[in-house]
Amino acid sequence: MANTPDHPGGDDFTFTTGEGGETHQQVANDAGDARPESRLTTNQGIRVSDNQNSLKAGARGPTLLEDFVLREKIFHFDHERIPERIVHARGSAAHGVFECTDPIPELSKASLFAEKGKETPVFTRFSTVAGGAGSVDTPRDVRGFAVKFYTDEGNWDLVGNNIPVFFIQDSIKFPDLIHSVKMEADRGFPQAASAHDTFWDFISLMPESMHMIMWAMSDRAIPRSLRMIEGFGIHTFRLVNAEGKDTFCKFIWKPQLGVQSTLWDEAVKIAGADPDYHRRDLFEAIDTGAFPAWDLFVQTFDEDFASKQPYDVLDPTKLIPEEVIAPRKVGTMTLNRNPDNFFAETEQSAYCPGNIVPGIDFSNDPLLQGRLFSYLDTQLKRLGSTNFHQLPINAPKCPMHNFQRDGHMQTAVPKGRANYEPNSLSDNGEDGGPRECPETGFTTFTANDERNDGGMKVRERGELFADHYSQARLFFRSQTEIEQAHLASAIVFELSKVMIEAVRIRVMARLRNIDETLAKRVADGLAMDLPVKAKAAREPIDMDDSPALSIQQSYDIPMKGRKVAILFDEGSDKSSIDTLKSGIEKDGGTAFLVAPKVGALKLKGGTLAADGQLAGSPSVLFDAVACAMMPDNAKKLAKDSAAQGWFMDAYAHCKTIGYCPATKEFILDKLGIEPDAGVIPNADFLGVAPARHWDREPKVRMLA
């Protein structure tokens, strides 16, 4: 049969139809000779003659067990899935490069920080924490931020989150935390949500979690894009220079596109409109050459500084405000290539905080110490072998030689007898294998200068670990009024899903140690009386506000990296649309054309095809919207629920709305959308979009 659009073939294969009408695409002999990879084979390299029909005893007879092609194909399919990560199961990742822009040899002997311009390949994975691999991208949740540096000294994994602190102080509580936030054990729901009894029951009994709760209930937990989140190593690490001098260090990633969030109502609607919103956004940005980039900063300090702080730097529920120690930039990471295969790379990537290189070392942070064990252990369960490091995505890009041998799925083929040392095989003319490197090899920093009595083994925490509220107070009071309202409203929403009243009471009792107005707002939002303040293990103190903790105070929203929708219909003025589109793209944004129908529409001045249909392209997917309509079309759209929702959502989510005269008269006016700083004529649109207009929010929703 000839190749046609309905019967696709190609230069390398032809299309035929079998006796049952099934499709066969068959390689041409000359093409197969020229390109052997075009021939379909089994995993053993045996060419497959028919990939559409199993081997049967007659056309209508039973399938034969001897069909090795069928058995191999089904066998492999049945075992395609590996256990998903217990946490951080839903992830998206990309390849890239880290460039050292500001060397720090005086602080660290790590080669990737040694010289300006030095480049190190990276593979970076972003993830949600609570949901499974099949959950949505936009729940209220912490986002994982894990970077694998393929340095010339070995792999370094910087495994953190988009929030600089954590829920717990000691790793022994990690299983309890995750059990509480995951789906409730008896019912298997809710998925990817912390708004339920068991999580808040645990939190209400763990005062050390209150600082993290401030972050998790803030807008940081509902980001606009993975390209617009910060990343933190969370723990205090050490940098060690060539002379053996150590410096404490915290690692911070700052996105060049700035930090931006969504609104809760927006995040919920995005989940319905596009469950893969963040994954698609990252993939498409890289695919189109809009490579996202982050600058890596370090906060460095010594033991003298640490000993004078009102908190313990080994406590992972605490941060060092940027106003106290200004972050120092050391380099830039640019993600410039999407994975070739999601499973082989993103899913099989294995990160371990214990993977460090000379010049980087650990502190006694008790949460970090537990992670050093846990991550390595979990890879054996997920990937089925201690040889997981041989998978291409995990393999170092520098030479690797040792005496580890065999094991499940060993893919290397070591030669010779030397699988131990010391040995004297080289004296007999054989390869004796590698040997230890005392001068250039990794040596653990040995000094015990963390105010610790190493002569005693105890199960207890440092004195300053008992202050659970001061930094939670610092975070809340550093937010703008609207951010504080978002945070209070988030807690009200979450606690409204908690059916055990005593849990709600305990949470509010703890909130009183953070801020009385916050506790009162939550109590009012739940129509409950404010309980007696919970007794604090250590009385909180007031710290200086840190504007760096606020999203809205830290960054202006640029057009670069943002997505702006332009709604049009038949008869619209093409030149107006072209002007908006070119202006958006000139400033680094992406213009997305929306119309009631896809396909080329006749406009004033030409024809234009939409990128998406109105009902399938809700305004929650965009950072700002504009509209160019003729009066008759505007009148018609004013009666369409999809169009009404398109404008009402944009207005309710405080986005910039650009309008033409017909849009204002027949749509906006009828919907009660009044002009303000962000509801403006198209002529002014490019100078304002895609800013959010927070003064509008009290007009469109009730906030706690």
UniProtKB/TrEMBL annotation:
One of its GO terms (cellular component) is cytosol. Keywords: Heme, Hydrogen peroxide, Iron, Metal-binding, Oxidoreductase, Peroxidase. Residues 1-57, 415-436 are annotated as: Disordered. Coiled coil: none annotated. Residues 41-429 form the Catalase core domain. It is an enzyme of class 1 (oxidoreductase). It catalyses: 2 H2O2 = O2 + 2 H2O. Its cofactor is heme. It comes from the Bacteria. PROSITE patterns: CATALASE_1 (PS00437), CATALASE_2 (PS00438), CATALASE_3 (PS51402). Its EC number is 1.11.1.6. GO terms for biological process: hydrogen peroxide catabolic process; response to oxidative stress. Heme binds at residues 85, 125, 174, 371, 375, 382. The active site is at residues 88, 161. Decomposes hydrogen peroxide into water and oxygen; serves to protect cells from the toxic effects of hydrogen peroxide. Belongs to the catalase family. HPII subfamily. This is Catalase. It comes from Sphingomonas sabuli.
